[in-house]
Design a protein that fits this description.
Layout: E1 6-10, H1 14-22, E2 31-36, E3 41-46, H2 48-52, H3 61-67, E4 72-75, H4 78-92, E5 99-102, E6 106-110, H5 121-135, E7 140-144, H6 147-156, H7 175-183, H8 212-216, H9 228-236, H10 242-246, H11 250-257, H12 259-269, E8 286-295, H13 298-318, E9 321-332, E10 337-348, H14 351-360, E11 371-383, H15 393-420, E12 426-430, E13 440-444, E14 465-472, E15 483-486, E16 489-502, E17 518-525, E18 530-536, E19 544-550
Parallel strand pairs: 2-4
Antiparallel strand pairs: 1-6, 1-7, 2-3, 5-6, 8-11, 9-10, 9-11, 12-13, 14-19, 15-16, 16-17, 17-18, 18-19
């Protein structure tokens, strides 16, 4: 007999109670979490107030509003619920290191050899219930020798097996029953709401070691985690309890209902393995050094960094990771903590590229009465793959020179970023647009690569300085004026090159292009200025002349 003990934790109101934890005022009102399923809004979670009003999970939202006019609904956030369950998984690690999520609203814990640390299984389950009460969560638990049995006890302990033949299923009843059923109104159409079944205490949800058969026998067939169709078919044959199946021949059940039924039976009874596979903890890269005596000089701190940094980079290299952001934490003797953080333009595990950036920001640390511990933390890491140099000698040298040049640029960006911030350093890339102000895009230099190849040459000259169109005082005719006034200056045209006609992007409503189609002219003035003028033919605005750039 196996000595495994499995605990199943089911949070039936996880989605609603997650919202109540963020907004406690919702706890006193009927609340439902809804999600669109097959072009209909369906309830996925309810709080206790809504359940006491007769609402149920899986019920259409329109029917729920008819039964409870004051119902508050909130769209379901699958990502938010997943992250909340991950937080609960870390909390459940206090009971056992083997914790895994299950079905999006439950956890399964392998308690083998851990219950005695809490005084026994009943005491451990009481601790779980108390913790969940403090967290504002509703929890149902089941403890048994197998994962399937624990799942069944958590959800169906104390629930009697009933028949699927009811007065509302008219096609399954006798003729006399059909006449009575026709006079009754379904609960979704204003009839009596179904009764809310209550749960039993923890003692009925604990299956003693070796007592799985007796604990599962009185439970409904649905406790075996079967498909609803299979459960309905078994009910029509009069097999409504798990005990009704345990004595049946396996071969006949497999031929009639498939091997899935037999597999679920074997998993529940322990004949088929169903291990608990906890999710792998995320990698955490940090090193620290405790000092025998407090230090306060920058040279001493750098000496500590020189001992810590190679260790951190070696761990990153072994994992195939490169660090993007590194934090240095200096713990002072007065229990204060000084933190500096630096960023790299490219992920790296090379200490020679990280050390100068830390040294640049070392002046921001206030040593106070001395520093007695240093800690380096890789705050943000990314996968990093080594590039091997292959090919002929000359080709290899060219590739290595190009890589060294790229590293030098990245080091420069990292040094500048340590002073002004990486977000303030940008580079320009060409963009696929005929609109002059949209012919380029601005990217963060630390999170982008330089443009490869030559910059695409425009069909006509473009000014070096570009600004928003400014009005030019000239006759509103498409002919290039001989004299015009711009920025308070009276200018005379010496020569002009054009026109170059550009049309706006008709699929976008750009406020700067509401002047309609433009005719651009490169205009030289007698005072030596070379301006970029255009005539707007008028669209949502009146036609006229504008100046947009200068060939400085």
């Amino acid at each position: 007999m196996s000595d495994r003990r499995i605990l199943s934790l089911w949070f039936p109101r996880l989605g609603a109670e997650r919202l109540i934890r963020r907004q406690p005022v919702l706890g006193d009102q009927p609340l439902a979490v809804v999600q669109e399923q097959q072009n209909a809004q369906v309830i996925t979670a309810l709080n206790g107030v809504a359940q006491s009003s007769g609402l149920q999970v899986g019920q259409p939202v329109r029917d729920a509003h008819a039964m409870c006019p004051g119902l508050l609904t909130h769209p379901r956030s699958v990502v938010g619920e997943t992250r909340f369950l991950e937080a609960l998984q870390r909390w459940a690690g206090k009971f056992s290191p083997w914790v895994a999520p299950e079905e999006g609203d439950a956890l399964v814990v392998d308690l083998t050899g851990c219950a005695h640390l809490f005084g026994g299984e009943a005491q451990l389950m009481q601790v779980v219930e108390d913790d969940c009460t403090d967290l504002g969560l509703s929890v149902l638990m089941g403890l048994a020798d197998t994962r399937g049995a624990a799942w069944a006890l958590a959800r169906y302990a104390g629930r009697a097996a009933g028949s699927d033949r009811t007065g509302d299923a008219i096609d399954q009843e006798a003729r006399a029953t059909r006449s009575r059923a026709g006079k009754r109104r379904h609960w979704t159409k204003g009839g009596a709401a179904p009764a809310i079944r209550t749960r039993t205490g923890n003692t009925q949800r604990i299956a003693a070691p070796g007592q799985t058969y007796g604990a599962l026998s009185p439970l409904p067939i649905a406790a075996l985690r079967l498909e609803p169709e299979v459960t309905a078919q078994l009910g029509r044959l009069g097999l409504r309890r798990v005990g009704d199946l345990l004595g049946q021949p396996r071969a006949g059940l497999a031929r009639r209902f498939g091997r899935g039924l037999v597999m679920r039976l074997d998993q529940a009874m322990g004949s088929a393995p169903e291990p608990v596979s906890p999710a792998k903890a995320p990698d955490h890269f940090a090193v620290r050094m405790t000092l025998p005596d407090p230090i306060g000089l920058a040279e001493d701190v750098m000496a500590g960094i020189d001992r810590l940094l190679p260790r951190l980079c070696k761990v990153l290299e072994d994992k195939g990771k490169g660090v993007r952001r590194v934090a240095l934490q200096a713990y002072r003797s007065d229990h204060g903590v000084e933190v500096i953080e630096i960023g790299l333009a490219r992920p790296s595990f090379d200490p020679a590229r990280i050390r100068p950036l830390l040294e640049l920001k070392l002046d921001e640390i206030d040593a106070g009465f001395g520093i007695d511990m240093l800690r380096l933390v890789a705050v943000q890491v990314e996968p990093l793959h080594d590039a091997a140099v292959v090919g002929h000698l000359q080709a290899g040298e060219a590739v290595q020179a190009r890589l060294n040049k790229a590293d030098a640029l990245d080091d420069l960006i990292g040094r500048l970023g340590a002073r002004v911030g990486l977000e303030a350093i940008r580079r320009v890339h060409p963009a696929d647009s005929h609109i002059p102000e949209k012919a380029h895009k601005i990217l963060a230099a630390a999170w982008s690569k330089p443009h490869e190849g030559a910059w695409p040459a425009p069909s006509n000259p473009r000014p070096l300085l570009l600004w928003q169109p400014e009005p030019v005082h000239a006759p509103a005719t498409p002919h290039m004026p001989q004299t015009f006034r711009w920025r308070g200056q009276d200018l005379t045209r010496l020569r002009a090159l054009g026109p170059e006609r550009l049309a706006p992007e008709w699929w976008l409503d750009d406020p700067n292009w509401r002047s309609g189609t433009r005719d651009y002219w490169v205009t030289d003035t007698e005072c030596g200025q070379r301006l970029w003028l255009f005539y707007g033919h008028g669209g949502a605005m009146s036609p006229g002349w504008f100046c947009q750039g200068s060939f400085a």
